[in-house]
Each structure stands twice: as C-alpha cells, then as structure tokens.
Design goal:
heterodimer; A: mainly alpha; Cytochrome Bc1 Complex, Chain D, domain 2; 2 domains; two-stranded antiparallel sheet; 4 strands; 41% helix; globular; B: 137 residues; mainly beta; Immunoglobulin-like; 5-stranded antiparallel β-sheet; 1 helix
C-alpha cells in the first residue's frame, strides 16, 4: 500500500513538473505577444462601400456567379476554377492558370473580408474591385463589361436575382456600373468564407482566462514552436494580430525574377495599378458617401523598397492552402520554415536592424515551429 | 536670505523645460515633442486614448506654438522606425483645425517597436524639427 502511494506521488510530481516545464516554454513577454493574436473570430461588420454586403439575396447571387463560367469570355472559366472550395479556395498549383500560366500563386479566400489590401501586390483596396479584376484580365477570364451585361441579360434566373438585389436589370446604367454590381455580389458571397476556431485559439483563450485544462491540451511541440514564433523568430513583426498578418507588404527574400529577363515588381506595380483604377474607395462606384476607406489610396506612398515586396498573407488555415509564397515556390510548411531558417539577408534591400535574420533552427525546432503553424488551422 | 534663495530656486525649476500641461496649452496627457537643432518652436500631440496597435490606422491631434511668436507657414508630419531605417507606407493628411491646432489622419504603424513621429514646422522658409518616440508593443 505504502509502495503504491509512493509510486502515485512520484507520478503526480513528475506530471506537475512536466506541466510547469511546458508552460515555462513561454516567457511572460512571449505570452503577452501571443495574447494579442486573438480573440477569434473577429467581429464582422458590413462593408460600407458595398451596399449589398451582408444581404442574403446578394450572397446567393454572388454564390451563383462565383461558380458560373459564363462570366468568362470563353464561357469555360469561373471564379471557382482557381478558387476551388475543396482546395482551400485555391487551385493547389504553384502558379495559377488562366488563358496561360500566370506569374503568381492563387491566394486563398479564407477570411478575405478582413483584408486591407487585395492581391499579392495590393492593387485593389476593396473586395468588390478585386472580384472584378480577374473577370476583365485578358490573361484570366478575359471578359469585358459589355460581355458581362450580355450574359447576365440572357440568363433569366440570374437576371431575376440581379433585379431583386439591385433594383435594376443588368445593363441599366453603364456596363461599368453593372460590372461593379457583379463585383459587389461576388464580394458579398466571399465575405461568408470565414474560418472557425483553431487549437491555437483554444490555447490563447486558455492563457487569457488561466484555464489550466485548455492550456494543458495544447501540444508541447506547438508550445515550443510558439516560443520561437513569438520569441527569437520575430515572426510577429509581420504576422501579427488575430489574422496573423499586419495587412501590409514585406520583402521575404523570395526571388522576384519570374523568368530570365522578367521581374515581378510586386507592391511597386500594385500601387501604380491602384492609382489608375476606377474601382477604388475614392472613386465613383463606392456606396459609402463618406468614403471612409479612401485614406488608403489617397495616402499610400510609392517607395523604392516596394520592389520585391508582396502582401503578408494570413497564417490561418495554412495546412489547406499549399504551396506557399507569392510564386508558390515553397511546397510545404517545412520548406517555409527552412526558408526563414536559412534566409540570405544580403539579397534583402533593407538597412538598419535586420527585420529578417537566419534562425539556424535544428531539426526539432523546425518541427516545433511547423507544429505551431499547423495549430493555426481548423481541424 | 535663505528664503529668497529657495524661492528663486523654485521659480527656476518651475520655469525650466516644457511641462506637459504647458506645451502649447495642450492637455496634460498629451506627449510633448523634443525640439531638434535648438529650435524654439514647441509641440505636443495625442495619438488617442490608447497606444496605437500594429496594423491599425489612427489619427494624431497636434498643437504647435512659438514662445517668440514666430509664424508657422506650413507643417509636415511623418513617422519612421529609426532602428529599421524605414518609414510608414502612408503619407498622413494634415488639416488645420485652428491657429496652432492640427489634425493628421492616416497614420499606420505596420510593425511593433519604437516609432518616431516627426513634426517639421516651416517658418520663413526654414524647417524646424520636433519629434517624439512611441513604443508600439
């Protein structure tokens, strides 16, 4: 009996020590940073620039249009061709295919409603403009505003839905206005693609509420990975907040040569396209009379360092959206972690204190960081 | 004699340096900017009731004054991260609310760390710079 009690006592002490050791993997400073990455989900608000944001009829119309290839010039390509719901709202390819192979990886639509900028180069400042872009891009869906008016007008079902949502038939007003409305319906649908809570969120809330059960449920390896992420990895310089992105742009050391003689100018070109767009939040198609979002397009500064900068993506649901980076050049999360572990700082055009520095992670640390990143995805 | 010295010392202490509440009549919780290069212009600003959050836009309210009654012909505001040697991705828009009172909209700090807000006051064609550091967690 006495022996059994002794064994039990030793076991309890060992468990307590391990629990404490695991919790001790995070310093208070790291915990403070970690707590800023929640709570999740974020509060959802209607987009004031889109008068049909949140409108059930518009969401349904947007869903119909999203999956319908007739919007494209050829009649063969829908939004869902590249943004497939069964493939993490991407196409699982390194670089997208439209009429021909494109230069960049297809971005997922998970949580797209929370973005400040849209596209790898941020050439749009709102979701409905970003939804229009591939429709009229000659390398992608290769349509025109007039084509969109025609195909909508010929489809009685869609035409009826459009009339119910916008109070006018497709083509009433200018073709550009109809295109903007189509973008707004597509945006209303995409706003519904919001991810659920993850193991990280349960851990984060556990720490916030001192819930020992929730804290203990988080795998030790992911906890060690969190210590790297919120500690010497400095990942939170850019991947910050509940969305795990600051919503801005960064040179992450991924080459921006597309092929010999051709470069991807990234944010630099994106700002130029933004400033010439008719569909910004400062333009005539916004439904917000106060133009509250216009400060972005009015205030954004073209800078030399924008060359080679691409939008910092959210890290939520990463396990579903491989491959990674603007050119899809990194196939797995292990590849991504190795990239940052061995990054060549000489090719980063940055002065002053290095924002990015090689981490020189060993095999176990690499796995820990991967496990942490995986905990940011829904199961 | 001792009392005279004490009163004099007290007056000297009270009149030296910009107490927060004394800077251009700004509220006591505003931040006083440090002048650079010996300028006599003074300034104080407010970033709102909370420290700016990374990645969240915010506005700045600013008061500028000159004890020797120099006129501010125009102002410019900006922010940088001195350690990283980069600035913001946005140029704030400045509007004048009243004499010596301004509002700057469209600030956004996209990284945690020390950000330095700089106010440049142009008087008779010459710039006068003042700055304050804000630690963004």
């Amino acid at each position: 009996m006495r022996t059994a009690c002794l064994v039990l006592l030793i076991g309890v002490l060992a468990w307590a020590a391990q629990a404490q050791a695991d919790q001790d993997a995070l310093t208070q400073e790291q915990i403070n940073k970690l707590l800023q990455h929640g709570p999740w989900p974020l509060r959802v608000e209607a987009d004031p620039s889109n008068r049909v944001s949140g409108n059930p009829g518009a969401i349904e119309l947007g869903r119909t249009l999203f999956f319908d290839p007739k919007l494209s010039g050829s009649g063969n390509m829908a939004c869902s061709t590249c943004h497939h719901p069964g493939r993490g709202w991407t196409d699982k390819l390194p670089r997208a295919f439209g009429i021909k192979r494109l230069d960049r990886n297809t971005q997922s639509l998970f949580n797209v409603r929370f973005n400040r900028w849209f596209g790898w180069d941020g050439q749009n400042d709102n979701l409905w403009a970003q939804s229009i872009r591939p429709i009229i891009n000659p390398d992608e869906m290769h349509a025109t505003p007039k084509h969109v008016v025609q195909v909508l007008g010929k489809d009685q079902n869609i035409s009826g839905q459009y009339q119910d949502v916008f109070g006018a038939a497709p083509g009433e007003g200018t073709p550009e206005q109809t295109l903007a409305n189509v973008g707004k319906a597509l945006a209303a649908f995409q706003e519904t693609i919001v991810t659920a809570r993850t193991p990280f969120d349960a851990f984060r809330d556990g720490l916030a509420n001192n819930d020992r059960k929730a804290i203990a449920a988080y795998p030790a390896s992911a906890r060690r990975g969190a210590a790297l992420f919120f500690g010497r990895g400095n990942c939170t310089f850019c991947h910050t907040g509940p969305l795990f992105t600051n919503g801005e742009f960064q040179d992450a050391g991924v080459p921006y040569f597309i092929e010999p003689g051709r470069v991807d100018k990234g944010r630099f070109a994106g700002i130029a396209k933004l400033k010439s767009s008719a569909f910004t939040l400062a333009g005539k198609h916004t439904d917000d009379p106060a133009k509250t979002g216009a400060w972005k397009v009015r205030g954004v500064k073209p800078l030399h360092r924008n060359f080679g900068e691409f939008r910092v993506p959210s890290l939520r649901n990463l396990t579903k959206t491989a491959p990674y980076m603007h050119d899809g050049s990194l196939a797995t999360l292990e590849d991504v972690v190795r990239h940052y572990s061995q990054i060549d700082v000489e090719r980063l055009h940055a002065d002053g204190t290095r924002i990015l520095a090689p981490l020189h992670l060993n095999k176990n640390e690499t796995q820990d960081l991967v496990n942490f990143l995986e905990s940011l995805s829904t199961e | 004699m001792k009392r005279a010295v004490s009163i004099t010392a007290l007056l000297l202490v009270c009149s030296s340096g910009p107490g927060l509440a004394e800077t251009c009549g700004a509220p006591a919780d505003w931040l006083a900017l440090a002048p650079e290069g010996g300028t006599t212009f003074k300034a104080a600003l407010s970033v709102g009731s909370e420290t700016p959050k990374v990645g969240a836009p915010f506005d700045v309210e600013l008061k500028v004054c000159s004890p020797d009654n120099r006129t501010a012909d125009r102002l410019a505001v900006d922010a940088t991260m001195p350690a990283h040697k980069h600035g913001m991705n946005y140029q704030p828009q400045l509007t004048k609310a009243a004499e010596g009172h301004y509002k700057a909209t469209g600030f956004l700090f996209h990284m945690p760390g020390i950000w330095q807000i700089t106010v440049s006051v142009y008087s008779n064609g010459k710039p006068n710079h003042l700055s304050v550091d804000i630690d963004v967690p």
